[in-house]
Amino acid sequence: MTGKQLSEDHRAILAKLLQIPKLNNHDIAFVLNVDERTVRRRRYEFEDTGQIKKHKDVSKNAEKLKPHHLEKLVEWHKDHPDALLDDMQLFLRTQCGLEVSVPTISRQMRKAYGGNFLRTGRCARIRSRQQREAEGRSIAGELQQSPGSDSPSNADQAAAQDLPGVDDEAAAHQELYHDHRQMAPLQHIVNPHSEPQRPGQVPVVYHAAGEQQYQDRQQLRYELDLNSWNLRIWGVAASGFLTDSYNLFATNVILSTVSFVYFPHARWVGFVVNLLTLFGSVLGQLLFGYLADRYGRTRLYGIELVLVIVSTVGVATTSDGYSDMSFLALFTFWRFVMGIGIGAEYPLSAVITSEWASTSSRATMISSVFLMQPIGQALAQIVGVLVLLGEDAAHGLHDKQCGLNSLHEEECKRIIDGTWRIVIGSGAVPALLAIIFRFFLYDCGLYTLEVRNKPGNAFRDTQRVYGAPPANTDPAMVPAAGGNFFQDETMPRQFSLEDLYNFFIRDKNWYYLLGTSMTWFFLDVSFYGFGLDNRGTLSDLWSTTERVDINSDLWCWNSTLPGGTSLVPSWATDGLPTWQTDRTRPCNTIFETIIDQTKQYLLTVSIASISGGACFIFFANRIHRRRWLTTSFGILTVLFLVTGGVYYGVAHRPGAPATVLCVAICHFMFNFGANTLTFIIPAEIFPTTYRSTCHGISAAAGKVGSMVAVLIVYGINSGYTSTMRQGLIFLLFASFMALGAVYSWAYLPDVQRTVYDDDGKKRLENRTLEELGEGYLRAQQEGQVIGAREKWRDRKGKLKNRKMIRNPEVESRTPMEPVEADGRAIV
């Protein structure tokens, strides 16, 4: 085709393409199916008139690849004919000291081989000019088709005739998307007369930069969904989450020993330490959630573990110096820093696991990562008791009557002081192992494609983790190109006020954020209320007798060690020390107290929590997760009411194990339902642009709830002197569970859909992250009702319709128009 044969539309398209500096004459020629001399002549005309700048090599590193470097590369390639473009890039970096981009190498090698060299493989390849032109004509034909047309265009048929065969056509599509250099013209450039998007029209993809990016998203989702489970991703995320859970819930282990050594009668120390640790978690979740969306997941993934490691060392080495420093100030400071690292782990681990997982394995992978929370709790208890038993074997800790007698008081404090330092310092070991792998993890292709708009890097990084897709990939599933050099001028800027307003306010996606935040808030009020610092709570639940008075009737009132002095008589005036949590057995030593606490925690909390988390992994794709979240909140409401009633009936009596059983069932239900789901759902329903930020906000709301729980429990224990006050806490927390059920029912969307197999069997299918990320408007189009007011109106409408169906007289007197519900027309 010559210049004279160009239509007015093609001339307008050519004028626009010539103004794009990243396209050379050859690229434009094969897309428009014109002679390259025509493009060159038109370019000279525009340059002479000053409409465009003089054309130069578009690669930022092209000037570094000199002719003698190219000759050296060609000679090396002849000796290594199977080398890939990435291998050539590595050769130039190591042998020539050049940082040359892959597109530059691809273009220069095509020139060196005369454009007649074809290679296939995983990475971007050098392709023949004839193949490239044939594919270009196919792309141009597809882009010029009207949307929704199923019939192939003439350009597609012509391109198919040029290809060697059907198998070669599939390979051409596969090779085309692999090429880092391939262009991606948008529909509005190639077809300037296409209908613009109408105001108020729901976009196909939030933050999409055009049809090409939509195709790239489809291809990337297709590649991710070819896989089921990735042990590498799970191991990296789970190891960090295990570390954070270990350090957070080690509070139940170390506070008793720290109180024994430094604060035997200060009951507010544990309250301050827990409160500052949780406050640090809130800051970490908000800060790292935002930074992960702004700068990338992997840039921060590992930094939070560095914080945990440094703070762990800081906590383990805390001292009062030569009586010139405050031990409590340093201890709480390092716990605050540790809380920042612990909080950062929540959005990062959840979002990275969600984005790397396939659609079918997403829920199971995230729940498997979250299973590390109860395992970390149990591990902290086990490590603590093992260290204590080791110290007892080495120093005879039990025989020294530590805590009851002053004879070996200083030696006991020295041994116990080393015990808690070993326990807390051990938490850095899994972090050191995890951090090695985290710094070499790639950003998920979804983030690279949708936020960074770098499809070549997205596909490359995905294949580094999962490998290349099968060679017999269906061409219909593969997009026509893998790159996108065009930017949508109307594409909103991430975190701009306009974009935040449009997404959260105008499109009503604040419903989702409100739902995830409030459900997590109400859950953690109850979960942390008797799960964080529950040493005294568990001892009270396990007690089968009333409290014992401190008097001379106790066998430990007088010293049984020769030359020693009993410390028990001073407790009659000063009260029991804070480390002595079992008021029914005040003569227990610190050794016996910690052993009893560990046994009670493992039997009541850890076993039930681990069992619940494991059961959820099995049922994750078999139950309707959003409905189960609401149901589990309702079940927990009933369980808390029952537990409170049982406690009032059997507390401090032989039937006390009944309360212990009820509490264990509560912990099972926590991890079988609400506790796990509040972690999973925020990692699913938000778009990639704001997924980590919204998950961080939701998790921070949960930690605020845990701070509220700490305040409530401390206030009740301090101001309410009744020995039955634990029953009041159970009944009070039941109301928070009921509120969690309301918010999960009203403000959260369905993350699954019901589908029917060929044999008519019904099953649940996970929605993709791309579907869920389109937010409230997409859910509304699918018929979902979200919002408390909308739910109430919908419920009233359904009840009214049912009454009219059951009462035909009313229906005959008040005729109504047919309405559609669940795909059926009803009156």
Describe the structure.
There is one protein chain. The protein has 827 residues and is an all-alpha fold. The chain is built from 37 helices and four strands. The strands form two sheets. Strands 1-2 form a two-stranded antiparallel ribbon. Strands 3-4 form a two-stranded antiparallel sheet. Strand 1 and strand 2 form a beta hairpin. The longest helix is centred in the middle third of the chain and has 30 residues, at 327-356. It is globular, with a radius of gyration of 33 Å.
Report, as a whole number of angstroms, the end-to-end distance. 62 Å
Structural class: mainly alpha
Largest sheet: 2 strands, antiparallel
Strand order of the largest sheet: 1-2
Mean pLDDT: 78
- Estimated helix fraction: 55-70%
Helical stretch count? 37
- The 3D shape can be described as globular
Radius of gyration: 33 Å
Strand content: under 5%
Low-confidence stretches: 56-63, 116-133, 146-209, 472-490, 810-816, 818-827
What's the count of strands?
4
GO molecular function, one term: transmembrane transporter activity
Subcellular location: Membrane
Main location: membrane
Organism: Parathielavia hyrcaniae
List keywords for this structure.
827 residues, mainly alpha, two-stranded antiparallel sheet, two-stranded antiparallel ribbon, 2% strand, disordered C terminus
